[in-house]
Design goal:
Number of strands: 9
Order of helices and strands: HHHHHHHHHEHEEEEEEHEE
CATH superfamily of the largest domain: Tetratricopeptide repeat domain
Largest sheet: 5 strands, antiparallel
Radius of gyration: 23 Å
CATH class of the largest domain: Mainly Alpha
Helix content: 40-55%
CATH topology of the largest domain: Serine Threonine Protein Phosphatase 5, Tetratricopeptide repeat
Strand content: 5-15%
Structural class: alpha+beta
Strand order of the largest sheet: 3-4-9-6-7
Length: about 350
């Protein structure tokens, strides 16, 4: 009798172990798939995969943060903010969650909260060029050009090509050589958050996002010291010549009678296009979907984001299509490491 009980327990524990391992492997596979979609700019599909994964394990790696950035790329700023807050609820404040929160605040026009959140992110990790570049853009928006240029200098020192362009065009044209920025001595910020409500699986665009999300005290998001995270760096300052100008020549591409595309910004309107993707858009609305995008030296489109402020259409399906098709454009090899501009899809109703 005892031997039978022992055998039963062995089988039971083995089954539980196998089931646990299988579940972990399944979640791992879901994450890899979601990350691939996220990295390739297929944000709507990525959000769907992250939704399924987060329903099983909301703490899994960077799932909440990357779902938030996917929502941000599609203009779902409230949803991005909700994911940042949910990540803080589960994992505490991290540099990535504070940065995502800052970008969402900035997109909604709350520049003070955006700057405070990015300051917290920089205090936790001041080796990320993006954090300085994003905060610099918020300072620039607020016309605090001195602080903006300090951040652009720091971002350029950490290797940001776009920050180098900003330094060249609005900060006197002097760019620090890339290198590490010396970390400041700081105290980690502390904060508490109220639990957020669940994010709906179908949520993508701003108008359809949940309206009530808990917020953090912005004073708490700001580190308990008097520095904004920007530090002086001893790197040699040089004049940077290999950056595009603010040339906004427009290249207009007529796809068909119902769709034309304008491309401009940082000389991209002058750059030859060697591959225009096949695009078929059927819509009952006339208007614009605008995408901000960046192209590398090889001519590949490496990033795309929905620009809600310059768009008159915010349909989930059309935004997703525009983001995906923008990523499929191929430009001729160029002389600049990076060029970022704007792509406007002008659509006519059927």
């Amino acid at each position: 009798m005892k031997s039978r009980i022992y055998l039963f327990l062995v089988i039971l524990f083995a089954s539980v172990s196998v089931m646990g391992q299988t579940l972990e492997e399944e979640i791992g596979f879901m994450y890899v798939k979601a990350e691939y979609l996220y990295e390739t700019g297929r944000y709507e599909e990525a959000i769907n995969e992250y939704n399924a994964l987060i329903a099983r394990d909301p703490k899994y790696k960077e799932a909440l943060i990357h779902r938030g950035y996917s929502k941000y790329a599609m203009g779902a700023y409230k949803g991005a903010k909700a994911d940042a807050l949910q990540s803080i609820e589960y994992n505490g404040i991290t540099a990535s969650s504070a940065a995502l929160l800052g970008r969402a605040f900035g997109a909604e026009g709350d520049m003070l909260a955006a700057i405070n959140s990015l300051t917290a992110a920089i205090a936790l990790d001041n080796q990320k060029a993006d954090y300085f570049e994003w905060r610099g853009s918020f300072y620039e928006e607020e016309r605090q050009l001195s602080k903006a240029c300090e951040d652009y200098q720091s971002a350029a020192a950490l290797g940001s090509n776009q920050a180098s362009i900003k330094v060249s065009n609005i900060c006197g044209g002097r760019v620090p050589k890339p290198g590490n920025v010396t970390p400041p001595v700081i105290n980690k910020p502390t904060t508490t958050t109220q639990p957020t409500t669940d994010v709906n699986d179908g949520e993508v665009l701003t108008d359809n996002n949940q309206g009530n999300t808990s917020t953090t005290d912005q004073g708490q998001m700001n580190p308990n010291n008097n520095t904004d995270g920007t530090v002086e760096h001893p790197n040699e300052v040089v004049v940077e010549d290999n950056v595009p100008s603010d040339d906004n020549t427009v290249n207009t591409i007529e796809i068909d009678g119902d769709l034309t595309i304008d491309i401009y910004g940082q000389e991209l309107g002058l750059r030859r296009i060697i591959e225009v993707p096949s695009i078929i858009i059927l819509t009952d609305k006339s208007g614009d979907v605008t995408v901000d995008f960046c192209v590398n030296k090889k001519g590949e489109v490496v990033s795309t984001e929905f620009n809600a402020g310059m768009s008159t259409i915010a349909s989930k399906s059309l935004v997703s299509l525009a983001l995906r098709k923008a990523k499929e454009f191929e430009f001729a090899p160029g002389k600049y490491d990076s060029q970022c501009g704007t792509m406007i899809f002008h659509m006519k109703s059927m």
